[in-house]
Specification:
This is Polyphenol oxidase II, chloroplastic. It is built from 15 helices and 18 strands. By secondary structure, it is of the alpha+beta class. It is globular. Bound molecules: CU-O-CU linkage.
């Protein structure tokens, strides 16, 4: 019986996932406190970015196709279907026990077995307690039957009135006692608890317990979406405005690349300020290729690099679901199976870029246990979350979400604005509109969709290849302590369009062994002839592996993989007929060992 309920739910969710977003409609302007509007079924766009003297709320349709975001939020969706479907989903949700079905998602955390996490301070482990208050009453999250959508504004476009309310909300959150699960301290600790080995589950053999880790796997986007969702609801409730939506830091566009000024103005907005940041970087544009040391790029070179990095992460290297989202992680699996393009790339770069080099472990942004203590973290992750939405909206007829019940039924626990402990499912968060928020699109460009990089035109590629060792002449595991070149053979070449549509060519780097306590990063280039590893705005730059430091109890050393799609890159470089490609690994930070490098062909989703 459980199985059939589960599979119905599964089909339903798949259907939802395959269909488009909820229909949007013309909004009725509302006041923030108007509860009748809040419970209507319309999409309402507040307008925190209007000039202050303008009318505070303006009608706006989300069908406007001013960019890719929301471009597909048309009315493909039958509302009746949604409502009937939701009823079925609720009914089913409470009767599914994922542990009883054949599927086995990572179990939900147990608060009463939460253990003290560990941090590293000057090479010494330091216990760091980040467990939430224990509560035995858990309620299941229910999606609103008639969602009303409010916009998260771009942080660089909000007006002073919005900033004051945001500052007030955070000030009140900071003023709550640490024992209150809504307090800023507890909210920051949520990240630590899920990322630094505080939550574990029984392994099934003996007394051994396995750690829960939400990074470097397919849980990355859903976990952080839920985390921000509750953080935002708590902020809203502290200023009696359930329509409050948090700002996103638009670092993917030159207009928003600098740290939004509201976070830097200690005098006016003390609750948004944080001392523990890289102060030098606070005056420069965010560097999405950052590796911990200054590369002396001009702001416009940084913008060029950023644009290509985004293009690669969001488009060129992100055709397969798992390559964007991260690799599957199920009950019993070793953690860190592999991060998606965006998690390993820009997301990690901003953490390291923003962390304070004067602190022992890059606090606050530069280490998982402390990242949530910086208000900038939430604006950063709101943009990461926005990237998930944009990526899904660009999928057309391709699958947007894993249909695997092990993914959809993974559960997390969060405290909500009423201090209730809520159990949520990954499957309920894949569509942000159903969680009643969208991201501002007006006045926000997405420049990187047109940043497909060009290759240099020169005749020396073949000559360069002669100098590099063949793959079988290189000894693995390979310690990556210097720039390393290797000729990697391609099992298939000159494939037809049909063959390429069926299978994506992937440069698979596996058995990557790193110490989780360190910031580690290496960049990958293919057929780069001039040994220029500073300029990333070119087709020769493939992608990166990088990881935000975090301490686990076990294992200290992790093994993970990086999947880099190269189909389009090899076409653009004009080397699609070559038998082998010149792969160049450029270590940027930390100690890294590599187990193997090869070309594989992954079936398209
Ligand atoms: Cu949970 Cu940006 O990290």
């Amino acid at each position: 019986m459980h199985a059939s309920v589960a599979s119905n739910t599964h089909t339903y969710i798949k259907k939802l996932a395959m269909s488009s977003s909820l229909p949007c409609s013309w909004a009725t302007p509302i006041l923030p406190s108007s509860s009748s509007s809040y419970s209507s079924s319309r999409v309402v766009y507040s307008n925190p970015t209007a000039p202050e003297n303008a009318k505070p709320r303006r009608r706006f349709s989300c069908r406007a196709k001013n960019d890719n975001q929301n471009a597909e939020s048309s009315n493909k969706f039958d509302r009746r279907d949604v409502l009937i479907g939701l009823g079925g989903l609720y009914g089913a949700a409470s009767s599914i026990n994922p542990l009883e079905s054949s599927a086995a998602p990572i179990p939900q955390p147990e608060l009463n077995t939460c253990r003290t996490a560990t941090n590293i301070n000057n090479g010494q482990p330091v216990p760091y307690s980040c467990c939430p208050p224990i509560n035995n009453t858990i309620v299941d999250f229910r999606l609103p039957a008639r969602p009303v959508v409010y916009e998260r504004p771009a942080a660089h476009l909000v007006n002073a009135q919005y900033i004051s309310r945001f500052n007030l909300a955070l000030q009140r959150m900071r003023a709550l006692p640490d024992s209150d699960p809504r307090s800023f301290t507890q909210q920051a600790n949520v990240h630590c608890a899920y990322c630094n080995g505080a939550y574990t589950y029984p392994s099934g053999t003996g007394t051994q317990r396995l750690e829960i880790q939400v990074h470097n796997c397919w849980l990355f986007f859903p976990f952080h979406r839920w985390y921000l969702y509750f953080f935002e609801r708590i902020l809203g409730s502290l200023i009696n405005d359930p329509t409050f939506r948090m700002p996103y830091w638009n670092w993917d566009s030159p207009d928003g690349m600098y740290t939004p000024s509201m976070y830097l103005n200690q005098r006016q907005y003390p609750a948004l300020f944080n001392e523990r940041r890289n102060q030098r970087n606070m005056t420069r544009p965010a560097d999405l290729g950052y590796f911990g040391t200054d590369n002396n790029l001009t702001p416009s070179q940084t913008a060029d690099n950023n644009c290509v990095i985004m293009y690669n992460e969001m488009i060129r290297n992100a055709n397969l679901l798992e390559h964007f989202m991260g690799e599957p992680l199920r009950r019993g699996d070793p953690i860190n199976p592999g991060a998606g393009t965006h998690e390993a790339g820009s997301h990690t770069a901003i953490h390291i870029w923003g962390g304070d080099p004067r602190q022992p472990s890059g606090e606050d942004l530069g280490n998982f246990y402390s990242a949530g203590r910086d208000p900038l973290f939430y604006a950063h992750h709101a943009n990461v979350d926005r990237m998930w939405t944009i990526w899904r909206d660009r999928r057309g007829n391709l699958p947007r979400d894993f249909s695997d019940p092990d993914y959809l039924n993974t559960q997390f626990l969060f405290y909500n604005e009423n201090r209730q402990l809520v159990r949520v499912r990954v499957g309920d968060c894949v569509d942000n509109l159903r969680l009643e928020y969208a991201n501002q699109t007006r006045g926000v460009n997405i420049p990187w969709t047109s940043c497909r990089p060009r290759a240099r035109v020169s005749g020396t590629r073949a000559a360069k290849k002669v100098e590099a060792p063949k793959l079988d002449a290189v000894e693995f595991p390979l310690k990556l302590d210097k720039i390393t070149k290797v000729l990697v053979p391609r099992p298939k070449k000159s494939r037809s369009k049909e063959e390429k549509d069926k299978e994506v060519e992937v440069l698979l780097i596996s058995g990557i062994e790193v110490d989780t306590e360190q910031f580690v990063k290496f960049d990958v280039f293919v057929d780069e002839e001039e040994d220029d590893f500073v300029n990333l705005a070119k087709a020769e730059y493939t992608g990166t592996f990088a990881q935000v430091p975090h301490k686990h109890e076990t294992p200290l050393q992790i093994k993970t993989s990086r999947y880099l799609e190269v189909t389009q890159q090899l076409e653009d470089l004009g080397v699609d007929d070559d038998d082998e490609i010149l792969v160049i690994l450029v270590p940027r930070a930390g100690d890294i060992t590599i187990g193997s490098i090869k070309i594989v062909y992954n079936p398209s989703n």
